Amino acid sequence: MQHWHILGAGAIGGLFATLLQDAGIPCTLLLRDDDPDLAAGSACITLRRDDQLHKHRFAVSANSEDSPLSYLLVCTKAYDMVPAIAGIEHRLAPGATILLLANGLGYQEQVQARWPRLDCFAGSTTEGAFREARRSICHAGHGSTLVGQPGRPSAPDWFASWQGLQTSCEWSADIDTVLWRKLAINCAINPVTALHRCPNGALAEQPQLAALVRELCTEISAIAIASGQAGAVEDLHPQVMAVIRATASNRSSMLQDVLAGRETEIDYLTGYLLAQGQQFGVEAPRNALLLQALKAQNAGHAPA
Fold first, then answer.
1. Is 295 considered catalytic here?
2. Co-location of 18 and 44 in the same domain
């Protein structure tokens, strides 16, 4: 039977650990060598779903151990993806299956280029989850998860067990389009909410922000089309507004990072988008200004 190891057991990683365990699939949390749960020999994740608490206890393993890993789910932040995998690369079995589940684009190519012998898959999820405490997670919204591998039309054998999870989990024969669509939507919402420190709904309620979102969508669409991803941005603005309305009270993950003083994933969202635009000769001044303003704000010298 597959035995999954989870690298990055935060909100989404912890949620999927509980889903795997509930489906009868063994999984172990990979922890830093100084994590106190290693001394205890296990870790307990408390999941709050629909106002009910569910406790799950997991086996744990230090990153520095040497037992081989054959199935690895990585749910770190995009900027941590490569260094996190590098920290456990000595444990990766030849041809190990690795599923990357994070926001943004660019890190997938970096992982595949550095570890070409890994069987690398990518995923996109709309599950809503956030940490209430160190090992306490709120499952804030039920969503769906799509998994795929570029150029692979049908699912591998291991994916059959994932379709037994207590959530919608499907194989995508066109994961590139799925990831680009999520990138486009995130680029139109997350940086604006982070810069203006507002919930998603403000982007529809405040005329100035709503106009900005429309302008961003126009630029994002032009870059995507030039990149050969026209299907990912079909009706982008209506899709973005639908997401804003459906998540009106939510704080985007980027806003949560800003409020907590953490690094954001802007380089793998707007940064990646602008790099694509530069490659294909498509300018995106509103997105560029947004990136500049957010980086200035995070550096502690936001423009007046």
1. no
2. yes
